[in-house]
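Researcher: I'd like a candidate sequence for this fold, 275 residues long. If you have to choose between options at a position, lean toward the conservative one.
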């Protein structure tokens, strides 16, 4: 039995487990497309009982794909909970690609590059072919899988406790491993920006990103325009501490002007299509 990228089992479609896996996959796709759906709406759409919906959502929640609260299934982030990487990877695609191309300009051949678990950074990974040879350091299983067979890339995978919602390893083992390394460049993102400070919903993520920040010589933050409209609980790092903050062209000019006046090196990524 294998696993799909969404964490759902790949079993015979004719078996009971196969039909259940297919239904859960369709439910997760529907909720992610809508952002949120009521339990009754899911039951009606898929012609199943509300009890079955609750069981399916409990399993999807355990995998970190969706959340269930007060009769609603949601894939969206809140100030306390980050959305799954499966959901986030389908949002702001053009903006993330533009930001990734701009971020590539900060990476040079032969460097040791540290990458976090963000879906914006994930868009940078295919572009690294242009900077080989490289050493890539990451705690993200998705990035490890993408680079594991890539010639010219020395891959250092950071272990620890695995978190399915972000496909990454975190915890004390991870931060201790990071502390023993020194990277030329860190490329990372954030869940929210408030008062010109990067925030995230979980302390485990904050600890890992701070450790990465401390272990790198040059630190690059990637943030699409939606991050300025979101809130998260835990303060991570001031934007002024980064060597560059890369945003997309849809970012409100007021944010760009204010940050530049505060001495932040803001790079606005203009391109929206791949080379």
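Model: Candidate sequence:
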């Amino acid at each position: 039995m294998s696993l799909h990228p969404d964490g759902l089992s790949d079993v015979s479609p004719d078996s009971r487990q196969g039909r259940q896996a297919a239904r859960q996959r369709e439910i997760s796709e529907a909720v992610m497309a809508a952002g949120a759906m009521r339990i009754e709406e899911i039951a009606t759409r898929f012609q199943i009982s509300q009890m079955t919906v609750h069981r399916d959502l409990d399993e999807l929640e355990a995998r970190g794909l969706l959340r269930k609260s007060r009769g609603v299934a949601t894939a969206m982030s809140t100030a306390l909970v980050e959305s799954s990487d499966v959901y986030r990877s389908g949002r702001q695609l053009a903006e993330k690609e533009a930001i990734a191309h701009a971020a590539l300009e900060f990476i040079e051949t032969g460097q040791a590059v540290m990458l976090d678990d963000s879906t914006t950074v994930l868009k940078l990974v295919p572009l690294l072919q242009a900077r080989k040879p490289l050493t890539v350091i990451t705690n993200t299983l998705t990035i490890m899988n993408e680079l594991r067979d890539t010639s010219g890339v020395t891959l250092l995978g950071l272990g620890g406790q695995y978190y399915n919602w972000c496909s990454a390893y975190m915890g004390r083992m991870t931060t201790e491993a990071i502390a023993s390394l020194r990277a030329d460049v860190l490329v990372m993102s954030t869940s929210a920006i408030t008062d010109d400070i990067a925030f995230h919903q979980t302390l485990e993520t904050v600890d890992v990103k701070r450790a990465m920040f401390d272990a790198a010589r040059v630190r690059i933050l990637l943030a699409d325009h939606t991050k300025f409209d979101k809130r998260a609980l835990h303060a991570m790092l001031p934007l002024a501490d980064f060597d560059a903050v890369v945003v997309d062209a849809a970012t409100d000019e007021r944010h760009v002007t204010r940050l530049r006046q505060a001495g932040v090196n803001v790079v606005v990524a203009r391109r929206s299509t791949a080379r």
